Amino acid sequence: MNRLKGKVAIITGAASGMGAAHAVAFVAEGAKVVLTDINEEKGLEVAKSLGDHSALFVKHDVSSKEDWDKVIEATEKTFGPVDILVNNAGIDKPALLEEMPEALYRQVIEINQVSVFLGMKAVIPSMKKGSTGSIVNISSIAGFVAAPYRLAYSASKFAVRGMTKSAAVELAKYNIRVNSVHPGLIDTPMTSAVPKEELSKINIPLGRAADAKEVSSLVVYLASDESSYSTGSEFIIDGGITAQL
């Protein structure tokens, strides 16, 4: 239960869903965690449940460089230099390409893609202080295969996949590892908004959606020293969906 003992982590989008599950798992493994989200009420609630000595919530617009600077500052002031960054925050705004407003496309790209760039860039100086680091970028199987009515979402998730590889090669000299995680259908508030008839069309060999905790187990592994030789890699967790394609 001490796989992350002594490590300091930032997890974005941690007020609910996978982000909250990651935060719970990290604290259980001994990490100090800074949870960030735009939803202050729920974020504070999750952080409080984890304890003041183990968790801190910071309200955070992940598409804002200024907000990222504040998060790094608060993290170092409270817990010390950052060892782990989990870029988990994301949104899904389904729309037909022909009908998709430009503003919606840009919003998805800003939150799902630009935020990953900003987060990785912001955390590097802090990770250099400890001469080590692990960045886990949450992408999606939509970063591998087509996702109908989700051109913006797919674009952002394909981008995160490529950004992860480029960053991994560039940051290896600092002993900073960068990997991407590609979930399939996960039982979260985001997927609960998807119409049931659409979900029923997904052929999942394991026959079910995943619990967010199952993704957290993989994220803990990538954040820990157990994955010390893994960088620039893609980790798919989709119950076998992409194995059929």
UniProtKB/TrEMBL annotation:
The keyword 4Fe-4S does not apply. InterPro entries: NAD(P)-bd_dom_sf, Sc_DH/Rdtase_CS, SDR_fam. Residues 1-23 form the signal peptide. It comes from the Bacteria. Keywords: Oxidoreductase, Signal. Its EC number is 1.1.1.53. GO terms for molecular function: androstan-3-alpha,17-beta-diol dehydrogenase (NAD+) activity. Belongs to the short-chain dehydrogenases/reductases (SDR) family. This is 3alpha(Or 20beta)-hydroxysteroid dehydrogenase. It comes from Chryseobacterium lathyri. The lineage of its organism: Bacteria, Pseudomonadati, Bacteroidota, Flavobacteriia, Flavobacteriales.
